[in-house]
Design brief:
By secondary structure, the chain is mostly helical. The chain contains ten helices and no strands. GO terms for molecular function: peroxiredoxin activity.
């Protein structure tokens, strides 16, 4: 088949637009293969200042994998001071605590399940796996009904992570954490770590409410994935 010159012009025009789109996406600082988001619309526009143009965005980049802003960051940057405070607080919660990394990621993933925050789960499932959570752990975190302290749960998670999951359930669903649940976790953690555990679970309840209410990456109505 021979293409007419007008068809070629249309095709060239189209290709130009695709490559222009590619350039604006990579100004977020990532190559297409490294994407963790689908970039579907949220309830506010994404703001992605190019690298070197906004110190707050650049600081967020510095603590993201591969220096890439997430769709979450693009939503936060509509309110720059909120984005900056969020960066400080969650940088500390994520990177400057003394909790076992499996426990920290269990808290985050469990809260994603309880609040049906699929975006939070999708971002953290790979982090949880690299911290040491197995598919069996992830399935217990995904499927166990709230407030369960069944022996099966303890058999798979071990006593320490099971105590952590119960703590996450109570602080998320009931706010008020009963003494036996608090003391159950206290057996494994010192005072500093109890404060870090409470800041992590409280903080990721903020994250989940934020990503759901603003429909970050259009994941509000997507079910939390099933780990395989
Ligand atoms: C980071 O970049 C590497 C190399 O380009 C890539 O293999 C990896 O998937 C990226 N990770 C994330 C989470 O984007
Ligand atoms: C926080 O953690 C990061 C990453 O591990 C580290 O580079 C930094 O020094 C820590 N900050 C403090 C104040 O401990």
């Amino acid at each position: 088949m021979i293409l007419g010159s007008s068809t070629v012009i249309v095709v060239l025009f189209f290709l130009f637009h695709i490559s222009a789109l590619g350039a604006s996406v990579s100004s977020r600082g990532h190559a297409a293969h490294a994407k963790r988001d689908d970039d579907l619309p949220a309830r506010v526009p994404y703001i992605f200042p190019p690298p070197g143009t906004d110190p707050i965005a650049d600081h967020i980049r510095s603590r993201r994998v591969n220096g890439t802003l997430l769709d979450l960051d693009g939503v936060l940057l509509n309110a720059r001071l909120v984005a900056s405070g969020w960066d400080d607080l969650f940088g500390i919660i994520r990177d400057n605590n003394t909790l076992p990394p499996t426990m920290r990621e269990l808290f985050i993933l469990r809260i994603a399940v309880l609040n049906e925050a699929s975006y939070e789960w999708i971002q953290h499932e790979p982090v949880g796996r690299s911290a040491g959570l197995s598919t069996d752990h992830l399935r217990v975190i995904r499927f166990t009904p709230p407030f369960s302290s069944e022996k099966d749960v303890r058999n798979v998670l071990g006593e320490q992570l099971a105590a952590a999951m119960l703590f996450a359930d109570w602080i998320t669903k009931a706010v008020r954490v009963p003494d036996d649940v608090f003391n159950g976790l206290r057996k494994f953690l010192n005072d500093q770590q109890m404060v870090e555990a409470t800041a992590t679970t409280g903080g990721y309840n903020l994250v989940s409410r934020f990503v759901v209410a603003l429909n970050v990456d259009d994941k509000m109505d997507v079910p939390v994935p099933i780990p395989t």
